[in-house]
Every structure is written in structure tokens, then in C-alpha cells.
Amino acid sequence: MQLTIMSVSYGSPAKKRVTDITKNIRKVFESGAPTIKLNTDDGAAGVDPAPYTPKETTIVYTINGQRKQKTFPEGYKLNFKDDLQ
To answer: Model pTM greater than 0.90?
Structure first.
């Protein structure tokens, strides 16, 4: 499986308050960690673009050359291998 993380955004698209957390997620993925919790502390390194608002993480990636996009709710424990297929 060849997985490449293209971009990752975190926040509230409905309120147009999102931040780019691509570097954070790539760093964890490249470290070999199997999972990361998609929240302000872990996934966004303390950045909260929309305080007191439910947030989501949108990941754009390629797997074996095919471009895909998935969105996960705040607090989701992302498993790189299982969730990004």
C-alpha cells in the first residue's frame, strides 16, 4: 500500500473557520505511529480555529495513485492503515 497525505484541514467548514494541519498529520504518519486522535491537542497541535464549535478533519490523500478524500468527526481515533483505504 502506497499512501501519500496531500492535505489536511481541521475546523468548522460551516463557520468557515478551518486551519491547515497537513504538517502535523504527515509528521505523525511518517513517524510510523499507527493512529492519531483527531482533536485540538493531538491532531492540531493545540490550534483551535473554531472554539466551542464541533469540528471535523478532512484528509485528501492518494493511495496506490488514486486520489481520495475522507472527513472524520472531532475526537476520532484515526487508524492510518484501516481508515485511509
So the answer is: yes
Q: What is the DSSP letter of 15?
A: G
Note down pLDDT in tens along the chain; length 85 residues: 799 999 999 999 999 999 999 999 999 999 999 999 999 999 999 999 999 999 999 999 999 999 999 999 999 999 999 999 9
d(CA 1, CA 73): 25
Question: Looking at the 3D structure of the chain, how many domains does it have?
Answer: 1
Domain span including residue 26:
3-83
| CA-based nearest residue to 21, from 69, 62, 59, 71 | 59
